[in-house]
Amino acid sequence: MKQIKSAARIARQIQQTERAMDQTILHANALVTAMIEARLEGNFAAEIGQDALEDVARGIKALMEARGAIVSGHGNLAKVAGELAIEWRMDGPLEEKVKEMPYFKAVEQNAA
Q1: What is the tens place of the pLDDT at every residue in 40-53?
Q2: Which of 102, 86, 105, 112 has the alpha carbon at shortest distance from 7?
Q3: Contacts of 39 by beta carbon, 8 Å cutoff, 6+ apart
Q4: Residue 99: is its pLDDT beyond 70?
Q5: Does residue 63 contact residue 21 with C-beta atoms inside 8 Å?
Q6: Exposure string (b/e) for 14-47, b if CB count within 10 Å is 16 or more?
Q7: Which are the contacts of 1, defined by CB distance < 8 A and separation ≥ 6?
Q8: 77 in helix, strand or coil?
Q9: Are 63 and 55 in contact (CB under 8 A)?
Q10: What is the C-alpha to C-alpha distance for residues 69 and 112, in angstroms, rounded to an integer?
């Protein structure tokens, strides 16, 4: 029973973390949009604020890499759950997951 409670707590936390990462990336992208819109509205030359824009873009890249690591960790947690025979579902509340696509393997048959 302790394993199930711990697994449920971890599942909730990983989903919250993934959503927080997405929200952070959205906010950072909104910042880029605001910076570019301000330059256009102010009729400033393109080089004005370019260094700052590049800094923010690098930050977004780092956020994307961190998001990828969290997603990878989520997948690895699912493997751990399987190894410990803890049941888990592919979908959280109102969350659609990408399921593995079935694949077909070509099989040679001897013509008799």
Answers
A1: 999 999 999 999 99
A2: 86
A3: 46, 48, 49
A4: no
A5: yes
A6: beeebeebeeebeebeeeeeeeeeebeeeeeeee
A7: none
A8: helix
A9: no
A10: 52
Helix, strand, or coil here: 45? coil
The rounded distance, in Å, linking the Cα atoms of 64 and 22 is 9
Q: Are 81 and 88 in contact (CB under 8 A)?
A: yes
Q: What angle do the packed helices 50-83 and 2-41 form, to 10 degrees?
A: 160
* Residue 45 identity (one-letter amino acid): A
pLDDT in tens, 3-41: 778 888 898 999 999 999 999 999 999 999 999 999 999
Please report, as a single letter, which amino acid is at residue 25.
I
> Residue 102: phi, psi to the nearest 5?
-65, 150
Q: Given the structure tokens 């370019």, which residue do they identify?
A: 50
d(CA 34, CA 15): 29
